[in-house]
Amino acid sequence: MTVMKEITLKVPNKEYSFFIKLLESLGFVSIEQPKNNNSSEYVLNSIKKGIEEVKDIENGKKSGTKLDEFIA
User: Fold this and answer.
1) Which of 18, 23, 64, 70 could pair with 57 in a Cys bridge, judged by C-beta atoms 3.0 to 4.6 Å apart?
2) At 32, is the secondary structure helix, strand, or coil?
3) Which residue has the higher pLDDT, 67 or 21?
């Protein structure tokens, strides 16, 4: 098991999605979701991230999951 250190960062809302994408692109970073999943900030950021994912799928940057894979 790899020993890791933990840090807490505060990022402006308008830069949050970009920053998370940047961190996700680094193979050695593990991102944990905030513990308070009901906060309005968490919900808003989740919606923004979802919209960005849809745009990436529409632009061919990501592949989506087919509906029948969810149903099956």
Assistant:
1) 64
2) coil
3) 21
Contacts for 37-41 with beta carbons within 8 Å, 24 or more apart?
41/13
State the average pLDDT for the chain.
83
pLDDT in tens, 10-42: 889 888 889 888 988 988 888 877 666 667 877
> CB under 8 Å to 47, separation ≥6 — which residues?
none
Dig out the tokens for 69 from the structure.
């894979």
What are the distances in angstroms from CA 63 to CA 7, 48, 52, 69, 70?
31, 18, 13, 13, 15
